[in-house]
UniProtKB/TrEMBL annotation:
The keyword Cell membrane does not apply. Belongs to the Dus family. DusA subfamily. Its cofactor is FMN. This is tRNA-dihydrouridine(20/20a) synthase. It catalyses: 5,6-dihydrouridine(20) in tRNA + NADP(+) = uridine(20) in tRNA + NADPH + H(+); 5,6-dihydrouridine(20a) in tRNA + NAD(+) = uridine(20a) in tRNA + NADH + H(+); 5,6-dihydrouridine(20a) in tRNA + NADP(+) = uridine(20a) in tRNA + NADPH + H(+); 5,6-dihydrouridine(20) in tRNA + NAD(+) = uridine(20) in tRNA + NADH + H(+). The active site is at residue 98. Its EC number is 1.3.1.91. It is an enzyme of class 1 (oxidoreductase). FMN binds at residues 16-18, 68, 137, 169, 231-232.
Amino acid sequence: MDSSALQFHRRLSIAPMLDFTDRHERYFLRLLSKHVLLYTEMIVANALLHAAEKFIQRNAEENPVAVQLGGSDPKMLAECAKIVEDAGFDEVNLNCGCPSERVQCGSFGAILMKNKNLVAECVQAMQSQVKIPVTVKTRLGVDDLTSFEFFEDFIDTVHAAGCNTFIIHARTARLRGYSPKENREKPAIQYESVYRLKEERPELNISINGDIKNLEQAKEHLKRVDGVMMGRAVYANPWMLHSADAEIFGKENSAPETREELLELFTPYVEKELAAGCPLSILVKHLFGLFAGLPGGRKYRQILSEGAAQGAGAEILKKAISAVQSAQE
């Protein structure tokens, strides 16, 4: 996929989320939108080099898909970028935004914002090995380095190394004192800083991330930046993507007309994965939010959860659908 086509898909992307955006979730979301850009969970570079087949599994139907890497060794990241490209992914992204202590111990994630030159070296090394875009996901700042000047200098340094696309979580990261969950909620979101960057650096492709809960909010952000990245809001309510192809991309919607039809489309995939040895619990956890807030939604989730615990098969999806339909009659 050429970079101009990928920029079109970047108008809306789904954030890399550990334990959430696995290949099963990506297959499921692709049934809702042909055009949204999907991301893998973050993959640690060292782990990818030692067990590539485990980490780069994908279904051909998932594309466009980007791989997010965690690491800080330019040579190792370059090798990983080549693996990612050869495996058929459309983009490789460097994580400079994750604040967790485990990631800090590995000297990657948000702590990399403190070493802009190393990030630039990593980007250059990755780009030397691949033709697919190399992008960076970052924050507005880290710890006490919170000025706009610091943020813009970081972006300019990495851009000079060849990175043209940045996905920005519009808040700073606190590496001590805040949990990862707290770092998703505070300090206060600062969308204006991302807008300002786009205004001052119009040549860059800028996506905004953080506390974006629906497509209406996404469309408002798209008036000021190039792309929007959503995360947990979509996981909690995946059905919001059923109108994304039309509302965000100006294309014909590709999603089925009802949630029930969506589950019927997903059922053959569940059957195939169960036959290959995948636990039902791994497959159905991505479906829990589909009927959130609707009559029968709680019963639907209960049936899926209990069925997974009891070793049920794909027929549990039909049972869950029936429970929802009964509640809505």
